[in-house]
Amino acid sequence: MLTPPSGARWGSMRAVLNCPVWLNNNDEADMTIDRVSGAFLVLVGLFVVWERRVLPLGSASRPGPGYFPLLLALLLIVLGAILIARGKDAKAIRSVSWTEAPHALAILGCCVFVSLFMETIGYRLTLLLVMGFLFGVIERIKWWLTLVLTFGFSLGTFWLFDSMLRVPLPRGDWGF
Q1: Half-sphere exposure of residue 153, counting CA atoms within 13 Å on the CB side?
Q2: How high is the mean pLDDT of the chain?
Q3: The pLDDT value given to residue 6
Q4: 110, 127, 108, 107: which is closest to 170 by C-alpha?
Q5: Distance between alpha carbon 41 and the CA centroid of its chain, in Å?
Q6: Strand ranges, E, within the chain
Q7: 9 CB-near residues (< 8 Å, 6+ apart)
Q8: Which own/partner pairs from 163-170 qualify as long-range (CB within 8 Å, at least 24 positions apart)?
Q9: CB atoms within 10 A of CB 2
Q10: How confident is the model at residue 86 (pLDDT cuts 50, 70, 90)?
Q11: What is the mean pLDDT of residues 93-105?
């Protein structure tokens, strides 16, 4: 554990920052769930700010395509910083049990599957497969409810976005 520099100036800076690196080995020194989440939000916000630089910003009266992503990224950064600053009372990250890790990995795998195959097999078929897997295999709900939810979500959201809102969704190589 690092020890802070001595002196009144450094002591007040340590109190303002409340940085866990300077603290003794106690409960406050543990990285909390909120602080980890806040740091992740700040990193995502910084990444979006960096990637948004290729889009024209525009002005307040005529915003360009990079204006709204920049505002959202700045909001993420601010909210992440608030989480980090106020996160000392949250549960320590070490105390979290990872009982939901299989669910999280299944959802992550489905996200990878969707990103790889959405254009090839289309929106409706991709959602049919993913929702069927998540509802039927991971959540193990009744088979008839799995079918209703899977077909309802995949066909219903396609109808809403593609037909009603006119947002073009991938139809895949088979046109479905």
Answers
A1: 15
A2: 81
A3: 55
A4: 127
A5: 8
A6: none
A7: none
A8: 169/122, 169/123, 170/118, 170/119, 170/122, 170/123, 170/126
A9: 8
A10: confident
A11: 81
Angle at which helices 101-121 and 123-132 cross, to 10°: 160
pLDDT of residue 100: 77
Can you count the helices (H) and strands (E) in the chain?
Answer: 6, 0
**Nearest partner of 35 among 14, 53, 17, 59, judged by Cα:** 17
CA-CA distance, 128 to 146, in Å (whole number)? 10
Write out the two tokens for 61: 């009266």
Residue with token string 């990103």: 115
Cα separation, 135 vs 8, whole angstroms: 59
Helix (H) or strand (E) holding 151: helix 143-158
Percent of the chain with pLDDT over 90: 32
Per-residue pLDDT at 15 exceeds 50: no
Q: What tokens does 93 get? A: 């990250």
pLDDT at 93 over 60: yes
Beta-carbon contacts of 28 under 8 Å, excluding residues fewer than 6 positions away, are: 18, 20, 88
pTM: 0.55
Give residue-wise pLDDT tens across range 114-159: 999 898 998 889 999 999 999 989 888 998 999 999 999 888 998 9
Report helix, strand or coil for 63: strand
Q: How many CA atoms lie within 13 A of 175 on its CB side?
A: 0
